[in-house]
Amino acid sequence: MEKSGRHPIHRRRGPNFLKIPALSCLRIIILIVTVINAFGHLASGAAYSVVKLQHLYANREGSNSANKGRGMSSEHFEMLKAHDRARHGRILNTIVDFTLQGTADPFVAGWVGLYYTRIELGTPPRPYYVQIDTGSDILWVNCKPCNACPLTSGLGISLNFFDPQGSSSARPLSCIDSKCVSANQISESLCTTDRYCGYSFEYGDGSGTLGYYVSDEFHYNQYVNQYTTNNSSASITFGCSYNQSGDLTKSDRAVDGIFGFGQNDLSVVSQLNSQGLAPKIFSHCLEGEDRGGGILVLGEITEPGMVYTPIVPSQPHYNLNLQGIAVNGKQLSIDPQVFATTNNRGTIVDCGTTLAYLAEEAYDPFVNSIITAVSQYTQPFIMKGNPCFLTVHSIDEIFPSVTLYFEGAPMDLKPRDYLFQQLSPQDTSPVWCIGWQKSGQQATDSSKMTILGDLVLKDKAFVYDLQNQRIGWTNFDCSSTVNVSVATGESKSIDSGKLNSNGSPPSRILKELDMKLCYCFLFLMSSIVILYSNK
Fold first, then answer.
1. Taking 80 as the threshold, does the pLDDT of residue 158 lie above it?
2. Is 133 a known active-site residue?
3. Which residue is catalytic, options 133, 216, 247, 459?
4. Theoretical Cys-Cys bridge with 388: which of 214, 224, 337, 383, CB 3.0 to 4.6 Å?
């Protein structure tokens, strides 16, 4: 049900209304339009920014949707793990994130689950498709000219190269700029021959990129109400990559760049906030259905049931204090120190990770408790190293609930938050496998980390309140309308289904407005008829 934040227009009733001199029909219509427009502006309050998300590989070969709901292929699942292995090898070393594949097989290398959005940069503005990522800080795009950058993408999108010479508002960042000092905290900095503030990112699998920082116009839509968006822009600093190596040169998984949502001063959220253009808070709701998608908002989703837990301070990522795990309400016997944040331990929330990874000491107790809970219905077997189950029952009926206990806030998980469906070897009964992996499998020296990726984050409204250093969540249908708070304290409704690819309302919304105006006109016409008939 849509919970609209619109203010109703109260019609004055009583004798005084009937004594108003009759106006011409045209003047009445003009008056109605003027009043509605005025109330629309009053109801708009402070605008906030919205980007529409799409799931990059929702319908790719081997995915659940491509297999008509019969589960993903084992090759597809192995690809997801390979993607996460490459990713976590970087995230644990505090390096700006990239989407890297850990397999050399070109057939499966591109089938990696992630979410992306379309942005516009420069003057005149040009579009770029970038992955959203809470595990890295900066926004970067491939630039022109570029050595070994892919020219085409197997994802069905057109790749664009940012051209600093082709944008009248572009300005390279110099090495003495104060922002270059902030950039040094998140990358290996270097000065180019032109004394530009450069960066070099190297990864454990041999992939890497070189680039320099530029300042230019970032174009975005401010969502005013369900009928109106304002086109806005702001000057921001972002990365301009001119050299790629390793897997970043391959075209089957190519996008234009990465949209980092970390806490560093160079993140887009921090930059817009420092200019007074956006709150220091953002939210996302990742749709978990086969079609994927969702919404990301520079603002606070305010849905009922939202709970919050503090962000662990002085950490490069979004670390949370996980204190325990319960299965079917029974606390597992796991030492809380397993999840404590140290140099090589901790629990990270990362929408750039596809699956979920448990610290080594917590993995076996978790898996064993799931197996015990369903033992009267089905027995496990191993498929590609994962515990799997053949069952004709609904997983919601036989698999247990799971609760993650964070500091001051529980996270209730359904079976689909820790299971994924794979193709049956005999293509008969559905096969469900435990999708949480043992952390030691995905990256060197990472066996003590717990990382919550999209498998856990999907179908929830997530809020990253950087101002108050806390993260909140609630279970939610991300295909429906979400309420978002604005600076005035009121709440507005956003329906991701009513936004097109660049965040603007489609024409059918305007048609709905036309219909409502027609209804208002017919109501007033009937009132005029009654008024004259009573004279």
1. yes
2. yes
3. 133
4. 383
